Amino acid sequence: MRGWRTLSLQARQLLAASLALVAFLGFTGYALDRAFVETAQNALRERLADLANGYLSGSELDRGRAFISPETPPDMRFMIPGSGLYASVRGEGLRWESASSLGRSLPPVAFLGPGERRFDGPLRIIDARGMENSVYAYSIGVIWESAGDFRLTFSVYEDAAQIQDQVNVFRRALWGYLGLAALLLVLVQMLVLRWSLLPLGNVERELARVRKGQSQRLSGWHPRELESVTDSINSLIESERSHLERSRNTLSDLAHSLKTPLAVLRSRLDSDASFDELRADVAAQVQRMNEIVSYQLSRAARSGHALYAAPIEIEPRAEEIVAGLEKVYAGKGVLCEFEIDASARFHGELGDLQELLGNLLENAFKWAGKRVLLSVKAEPGPANRRAGVAFVVEDDGPGIPPEQVERLLQRGVRGDERVQGHGIGLSIVQDIVAAYRGELKVERSAELGGARFAVRFPPAV
């Protein structure tokens, strides 16, 4: 069983195609063989019928009901013993056989009514040496009026060996040609399979180049049946590379951030500060380092994102977040309105959805005067592909000056490089949008007059 499971795709397809080819050619050969045998038997029947009619037309039956054969039979083999062509007459008190049946025991045939005809075979006969052979028989029921309406049955026999020889010759030719055709078709199948599986071989070679670091991603030149696979592999490669890059940046930021507190501690240890002063400085710098580590770890925890996850319903999560924000900003009396498409789903991690909505809505609550609007719309994609979704958060606050938007959306901006007045929340939103290959736009709200944040995750293609 394990051997079958480890067969290559080429071996599996070649085996399946070969089995189908053998079955098809076998059925075709059997059908042609049966058709030839039936055709040969029909031809034999017609020939024997002509011989029987010709023999009877030249025969006579005297008043003593003795059968008189023609001087020249329709086929001279009727005169040659053992020629393979025989004739016989059966009637009440009458039994006649041609000279060719000398030394052979012809098989009996049933008495037929006037005008009745019958084709039988193969029938067994025994020759003078006691050897058994087979013959085909064609019989005609006759009523002889000149002999007082005497009824008799006239039969013509021919050795089955002759038709069997024809069938054997045909079968040898048939199966020989079918075998040659099968061999040629198998060779063609191997070439076709090799050609059709070349794209898989190319994907395998490209993956090997990616593993060796010789290439950054798979190329885009693949058959459409493999496009979804190669696109998914490229997405995973890019996601892993992006995750690794973010991890390195986080460690680099952490190391850089810790340099200053460590340098302060080192300088204070080398100074003549008193024990109490040193204790206070150490406590302050340890607290600072603890804050730096906590921030960088939380940021690193947000750097991994699931590209393929179960769809998450958006409206219940938004209601939970808004309920909490309304308590925090209860003194402002901000009202949040929803326009959420019931069919919209977020394909990702629950934590990313909460971070995305939480930071956008918190920013809107912070700067809004009285109103916040959350709109969510689904974007259907191609059949059997992931649908997209668009988030829009608007407020009636002062908005964001256009000259600060470009700086706000810059990548890699750390905590001390954020746009004044917006904290680190919008940077987290930017990281999530980038990780899911989405789009983030910051504009002025035409409806409320404040800031408008539009996040779009397009459908999978």
Describe the structure.
It catalyses: ATP + protein L-histidine = ADP + protein N-phospho-L-histidine. Residues 194-245 form the HAMP domain. The longest helix is centred in the first third of the chain and has 49 residues, at 9-57. This protein folds into 3 domains: 1-196, no CATH class; 224-301; 311-457, Histidine kinase-like ATPase, C-terminal domain (Heat Shock Protein 90, 2-Layer Sandwich). It has 10 helices and 14 strands. The protein is rod-shaped, with a radius of gyration of 49 Å. With 461 residues, it is an alpha+beta fold.
Secondary structure class reads: alpha+beta
Shape: rod-shaped
Tally of helical runs: 10
What's the overall average pLDDT, rounded? 81
Strand order, largest beta sheet: 4-3-7-6-5
CA-atom Rg in angstroms: 49 Å
Q: Residue share in helices?
A: 40-55%
β-strand amount: 15-25%
How many domains make up the coordinates?
Answer: 3
For the report, how would you describe the main beta sheet?
Answer: 5 strands, antiparallel
C-alpha termini separation: 38 Å
Tell me the quaternary state.
single chain
Low-confidence stretches: 411-423
Transmembrane segments: 174-193
Catalytic activity: ATP + protein L-histidine = ADP + protein N-phospho-L-histidine
GO molecular function: phosphorelay sensor kinase activity
Subcellular location: Membrane
